[in-house]
Design a protein that fits this description.
It is a multi-pass membrane protein. It holds the Pfam family TPT. It comes from Rubroshorea leprosula. The protein is built from 12 helices and 8 strands. With about 400 residues, the protein is mainly alpha-helical. It folds into 2 domains: about 80 residues, no CATH class; about 300 residues, no CATH class. The strands form 3 sheets. Strands 1-8-7 form a 3-stranded antiparallel beta sheet, with no helix packed on it. A 3-stranded antiparallel beta sheet has the order 2-3-6, with no helix packed on it. A two-stranded antiparallel ribbon has the order 4-5. Helix 2 crosses helix 3 and helix 2 runs antiparallel to helix 8. The relative contact order is 0.14.
């Protein structure tokens, strides 16, 4: 209810805020006897009491300053106490712009991930050193972000010791998951690695249930049946099955589950954007991974393998290494940026669709032989992942 009252006609405004509100008027007014009779004009009434059965709460007053008769106007907006204040409708234009922005994020995320997996597999086929390949991916991303901060392209984050302390366990889990996935792709087909990695929700539920004591609805537990069954069917029927590749994907699933747990627990209240958060994560992971990569493989193996790859592939191999490193950072960066704009449920659905695009594209590009029963297992596992994302929310 909105009313406009000129101060020249205002005798005394609200006398009290109780169960009834009383307005005293000195000007002629219209008195409505009921909802079914016309109003009567009271010319000789000097004082009229208007009783309101429900208290009015003033939500805003405009123009209330020094009282100037015949000039200032007081505008009051009020609503009944037992009704909520009016809610403005969201701007349709801004909502549409947000949806377009999220759509662009998703399309870019999937495209960059597909390109990364293609070049990563090409590099690993010619240069089977996953520890160095993983290190180069993190180093390239860290260098890109340092240049962006130095040149002002991106605003550097404001961090302190507490931030890096809470980020450390996240970086450890991220490093293990990244290396394990790269080791897996160096031994088996890209499609097989991603089929096994689609079973990550099963690890998430099991870890949360038995280590953290969390409980879930029955629908969540039921969604694990197609996930586990589909992954098992795909693994059994895989033509080029390799135990190292299989275990690498499984370890990657477990590591990324702990990464998510540490990230949720440690980063609450930290005002760092998704892009800068992943940049800091890459830098810390690089510091953790480098000494282990040197110990496991070493410069001598890297040099001999590099000369062999250059002699077989040519200078084009350098572009492959650079591309897989750049696209690895870009697709992860876009995924963290999209997480700032969408809900966890939407992100989970997008991650599921991303795996489908990677599996299909890798099968087409690398001509991976797939038997119908193997494809069925992959479809069941991915369907279970989708059902899990629905049931979890």
């Amino acid at each position: 209810m909105i009313c406009t009252i000129k101060q020249s006609t205002l005798g005394s405004c609200v006398n009290g805020l109780g169960s009834d509100s009383i307005l005293q008027l000195r000007t002629p007014c219209l008195i409505r006897r009921s909802f079914f009779t016309p109003p009567l004009e009271a010319q000789s009434v000097s004082k009229t009491l208007l009783a309101v059965s429900k208290p009015l709460h003033v939500s805003s007053i405009e123009g209330l300053g020094s009282i100037r008769p015949l000039k200032s106007v007081i505008k009051c907006k009020a609503y009944e106490a037992d009704r909520p204040p009016p809610v403005e409708a969201p701007d349709a234009k801004s909502e549409g712009t947000k949806r377009v922005k999220i759509g662009i994020y998703f399309a870019t995320w999937w495209a960059l991930n597909v390109v990364f997996n293609i070049y990563n597999k090409k590099v690993l086929n010619a240069y089977p050193y996953p520890w160095l390949t993983s290190t180069l991916s993190l180093a390239c991303g860290s260098l890109m972000m340092l240049i962006s901060w130095a040149t002002g392209i991106a605003e550097p984050p404001k961090t302190d010791f507490g931030f890096w302390k809470t980020l450390f366990p996240v970086a450890v889990a991220h490093t293990i998951g990244h290396v394990a996935a790269t080791v897996s792709m160096s031994k088996v087909a890209v499609s097989f690695t991603h089929i096994i990695k689609s079973g990550e929700p099963a690890f998430s539920v099991l870890v949360s249930r038995f280590l953290l004591g969390e409980t879930f609805p029955a629908a969540v537990y039921l969604s694990l049946i197609p996930i586990i069954g589909g992954c098992a069917l795909a693994a059994v029927t895989e033509l080029n099955f390799n135990m190292t590749g299989f275990m690498g994907a499984m370890i990657s699933n477990l590591a990324f589950v702990f990464r998510n747990i540490f990230s949720k627990r440690g980063m609450k209240g930290k005002s760092v954007s998704g892009m800068n958060y992943y940049a800091c994560l890459s830098m810390l992971s690089l510091l953790i991974l480098t000494p282990f990569a040197i110990a496991v493989e070493g410069p001598q193996m890297w040099t001999a393998g590099w000369e062999k790859a250059i002699s077989q592939i040519g200078p084009q191999f350098i572009w492959w290494v650079a591309a897989q490193s750049v696209f690895y950072h870009l697709y992860n960066q876009v995924s963290y940026m999209s997480l700032d704009e969408i809900s966890p449920l939407t992100f989970s659905i997008g991650n599921t669709m991303k795996r489908i695009s990677v599996i299909v594209s890798s099968i087409i590009i690398f001509h991976t032989p797939v038997r119908p029963i193997n494809a069925l297992g992959a479809a069941i596992a991915i369907l279970g992942t989708f059902l899990y994302s629905q049931a979890k929310q």
